[in-house]
Every structure is written in structure tokens, then in C-alpha cells.
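hiii so my PI (J.) wants the whole complex modelled not just the main chain, which honestly fair. so below is everything: two entries, each one labled with what it is. i double checked the lines twice but i was tired so who knows lol
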Amino acid sequence: MNLKVSTRQVDGVSIVDCSGRITLGEGSVVLRDTVKDLLGKGQKKILLNLADVNYIDSSGIGELVSAYTTAKNQGGELKLLKLTKKVHDLLQITKLYTVFEVKDDEAAAVKSFR
Amino acid sequence: MAGDRFSYNLDSTLETVDQAEQTASRIASENGFDEDEVMQIAMAVREAAVNAVLHGNAYDPGKKVKLEFERTSNDLVITIRDQGKGMDMARIPDPLAPENLLKTSGRGIFLIRSFMDDVEIHPSSTGTEIKLIKHVHGMAEGGKEASQ
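here's the output for the full assembly
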């Protein structure tokens, strides 16, 4: 299933609910465009909800890294919410779990933004 | 399936990547690998197919990707071959090095090696062949679980 995203605002934080696969091609482009669009509108607190993402390939991992660095370079913050076990394991073996701020509880995640 | 061999000649397109992944998933399941192993094998094949289509054949419609599955007595062996100029192994960075952690690419071969038991990469001027090997464990021929 290709990636589907929907964005909602909670206390100044843009929560991007993602479902499907973040892979080379359409999935990566959808994520890239969504983050770029939010940053372009000045919405710099971004929480990617990956609860319904059960598959990411190396291109998808690259896209998460790109989203993270793009947000950071523009003075924003991008955090991850509710990783599935598969995605969690992938971030562990690629050592990216230490790079991303990963949250399990949405309310706590929203409060954690400055 | 021991001794069986299936091969496919695929176009250099993104559809090939999905097709290779789906075929690997099906064949791994048929050979009795568990859910996690099936995902790992399918992802390794996907990453190898991405390399073949993008970096090897560079989407050239005149070049093909050969995908082959072979079940030996102990292993599932998957071979992916492109018709590119040959991968330069010296240029593959360590994605775990601190200076590379935030790079947006360069993790494919690392993931392949993480998920498979053995990986052989044979670059040449006429293409790169990558052999992915996953040991079959606790299984009898035909994909049925061995009795205790």
C-alpha cells in the first residue's frame, strides 16, 4: 500500500498521520512534499505519526533523515511518534534511533516541543 | 523446492523493484521462513533490485535485471544481476560512521548484509552480480517443517 498522509494541528504542533509504506518512489515523494509544505507555511513543529507505517526501505529511511535535517536547518523540529516494531528495529540497526527523538504518547510528544 | 531454480528477466523500472520484492516474499514463505525472515529476505531483494535498476542499469530501457532464486539443500540463494558498469565497492561508505549518519542514501548494502546470512558481490565491467544467501533451518525438503 502506498503512503497516505493527513495532517492535523494540535497546540501548535503539526501531526502528520502516515499509513502505508515509505519506499522509493511515490511514498518518499509524498512524505517529502508534506514536510516541505509544512515548513513553507512556517509550521516548524512537526510530529510524524508512524503508527500505521509497517514498512520502510533504505530510500524511506533516507527520506526521514532528509525531513529531519530540512526541518532542523530551517529552525524547526521533527520528531517521530509510535514506531512499529519493524520500523523501530530498522532505526536501531542503522543507529538512527539515537538521532531522532522518538515518542510513544501523543500528548507527551506535543508537550515536548519548545 | 530443493534443487529448483527460477529466473526472471526484468525491465529497469521501479515496477521491477516491487515485483522482485513480492516474488522474494512469496518464495521465502513457500520455503518455510518465518514472518520476520520473509520480511528480511524481501527487503534485501528489494534493496538489491533498487541498486540494479537505479545505480547499475540507470533506468536504461535497453538493460535488464536478472533475478534468480535457487533452493539448495541448505540455503535459499537469490542472485540479482544488472548490466551496468559495475559497482565500485571502494565508494560504498559505512552508514554507521558518525559523519555518515545523517546522509540520505548509502544504507542499501548495509541492510542487505544485516538481513542475509551471506552476501557475495561481484562487480565487473559488464554488470554487478549480488548473491544473497539465507540458511534454511529446521526444514525438510518441500518447505514442510521437519518432525522432531
